[in-house]
Automatic annotation (TrEMBL):
Cofactor(s) annotated in UniProt: pyridoxal 5'-phosphate
Protein's name in the database: Cystathionine gamma-synthase
Gene Ontology process terms (BP): cysteine biosynthetic process via cystathionine; transsulfuration
Transmembrane parts of this sequence: none
Cellular compartments per GO CC: cytoplasm
One Pfam family named in its UniProt record: Cys_Met_Meta_PP
Family: Belongs to the trans-sulfuration enzymes family.
InterPro entries registered for this protein in UniProt: Cys/Met-Metab_PyrdxlP-dep_enz, PyrdxlP-dep_Trfase, PyrdxlP-dep_Trfase_major, PyrdxlP-dep_Trfase_small
Length: 380
C-alpha cells in the first residue's frame, strides 16, 4: 500500500527526513568539505561527490525539504533571491522577449531593465493582475512571463492559472516570484506555473540571518530547467553549506510561522482599515481587496505576512508615524519573525509608490502588542 503524502507541517518539522546517519543524530550535520576523496584505484569513493560546488549534502537536504514543500519536480538553491532570479532570466536568448509585471520588487525591475537593454531582449512591463492587459501582452511571442504574487509593495494578486494559460499560448513559460507567499501558502506549480522563485532570505528562513534564493520547477527535463542547472553548476552561484543548514533549521517551523504571521497580518489589516489616520490598506485578506476572490482560491495557507497602509497626510505623516514605532523595526526586508516597517517611497521615489505608504512585514509577536504600537504611532 502506498503511503499517503505527508503534510507540509510534517515535512518541515522533520526536515524531509534529513538526519545524520553517521552520528545517529536526529538533526542533519553540516558538510563543509569542498572536495571529496578518490580511492587508491582513483575511483570516487562516492559517485555523487566530486567537488563542493554542486555536491554538498547539506545543500541537497535543504533543496529536498523545499522541493517537497513546493510539490516540485526539482529545486535548486542560490546564494540570494536575486541570484535565483538572474539564473532564470539568463536562459532567455539574446533578442528574445520578456513580459514582466509592473510594480514588483524594485531590485528585480531595475536589474531586468539593465539586463534586457544589454542583451537586446524586449522587455514589456504590464500590470499582469489585469488579465486583459496580460492577454494583450501575450499576443506576440515571448520566452518568459514573470509575475510576483502577491506583489511587493502593491499587494496585487494575479490569477496564476489564467496567467499560465496566457503565457503558454504565446510559447512562453510562466515564472512566479512567490516570496510573499512561501511554499505551503500558494502552490504556484500546481496552478500551472513552470517555475517558482522565492527569496528564501524572507519567510522561508524567517530569522533574518541568511541570504538565499530558490528556484523550483514542474519539469526537470525542460530546456529552461536544464539550462539553469547547468549554469548553476558551471557558473558556480552556490549557497554555502552553513547557510543551507541554517535554512533547514529555519524551515522546521515554516508552516507554524506562516500561520501566526497571517493571523497577525489579518488582524492588523482589519485594525488599520478602521483607523481615522489611515487612507487605505492593501492586504489580500480584506474582502474589499480587488484580488480577494482570487487570493481565496490560490492562497490556501493564509493571506500572507505583507501589507501596505497609506497614512493620511502623505510623506511627512508617514515618516512621523514610523519614527514613533517602538516594536516594528525600521529596516528593509520582510518575512522574519520580527515585524519590520519601511517607507518604500524613500527607496524608490520614481516608481509611483504613494508617498504616504508604509510597507509592513508582520512577524510572530503578540498581535495586541503590534496593534498598540501602530495605534500610538498613528495617533502621535
Ligand atoms: N523578490 C522579492 C519579492 C523580494 O522582496 C526580494 C528582496 O526583497 C527579492 C526577490 C530578492 O531577494 P534577495 O534579497 O534574497 O536577493
Amino acid at each position: 500500500m502506498s503511503k499517503p503524502p505527508l503534510k507540509p507541517e510534517t515535512i518541515a518539522a522533520q526536515a524531509a527526513g534529513a538526519v545524520d546517519p553517521a552520528g545517529a543524530g536526529v538533526v542533519p550535520g553540516i558538510q563543509p568539505a569542498t572536495t571529496f576523496l578518490r580511492g587508491a584505484d582513483n575511483a570516487l569513493l562516492k559517485a555523487d561527490k566530486i567537488y563542493g560546488r554542486d555536491d554538498n549534502d547539506t545543500v541537497r537536504h535543504a533543496e529536498e525539504v523545499l522541493r517537497q514543500l513546493e510539490g516540485a519536480a526539482g529545486t535548486l538553491l542560490f546564494p540570494s533571491g536575486m541570484a535565483a532570479v538572474v539564473a532564470l532570466f539568463r536562459t532567455v536568448p539574446n533578442g528574445g522577449r520578456i513580459v514582466m509585471q509592473t510594480g514588483i520588487y524594485w531590485g528585480v525591475t531595475k536589474w531586468a531593465q539593465d539586463f534586457c537593454a544589454r542583451r537586446e531582449i524586449t522587455l514589456d512591463q504590464v500590470d499582469c493582475s489585469d488579465l486583459a492587459a496580460l492577454q494583450t501582452a501575450c499576443e506576440g511571442p515571448a520566452n518568459l512571463v514573470w509575475i510576483e504574487v502577491p506583489s511587493n509593495p502593491w499587494l496585487k494578486i494575479t490569477d496564476i492559472s489564467a496567467a499560465a494559460n496566457l503565457a503558454h499560448r504565446t510559447g512562453a513559460i510562466l515564472a512566479v516570484d512567490g516570496t510573499a507567499a512561501p511554499p505551503g501558502m500558494t502552490n504556484a506549480l500546481e496552478l500551472g506555473a513552470d517555475i517558482v522563485m522565492h527569496s528564501a532570505t524572507k519567510a522561508i528562513n524567517g530569522h533574518t540571518d541568511v541570504l538565499a534564493g530558490v528556484l523550483s520547477c514542474a519539469d526537470v527535463e525542460s530546456a529552461t530547467w536544464q539550462a539553469i542547472a547547468l549554469d548553476r553548476h558551471d557558473a558556480g552561484a552556490i549557497i554555502g553549506p552553513f547557510e543551507a543548514w541554517l535554512l533547514m533549521r529555519g524551515m522546521r517551523t515554516l508552516p507554524l510561522r506562516l500561520e501566526r504571521m497571517s493571523q497577525n497580518a489579518q488582524a492588523i489589516a482589519e485594525f488599520l482599515t478602521t483607523h481615522e489616520n489611515v487612507e487605505a490598506v492593501w492586504y489580500p485578506g480584506l474582502p474589499d481587496h480587488p484580488g480577494h476572490d482570487i487570493a481565496r482560491r490560490q492562497m490556501l495557507g493564509g493571506f500572507g505576512y505583507l501589507l501596505s497602509a497609506i497614512v493620511k497626510g502623505g510623506e511627512p505623516a508617514a515618516l512621523a508615524a514610523i519614527g514613533r514605532l517602538n516594536l516594528f523595526h525600521r529596516a528593509t526586508s520582510l518575512g522574519g519573525v520580527e515585524s519590520l516597517v519601511e517607507h518604500r517611497h524613500s527607496i524608490e521615489p520614481h516608481s509611483g509608490i504613494p508617498p504616504g505608504l508604509l510597507r509592513l512585514s508582520i512577524g510572530i509577536e503578540h498581535v495586541d502588542d503590534l496593534i498598540a504600537d501602530l495605534q500610538q504611532a498613528l495617533e502621535g
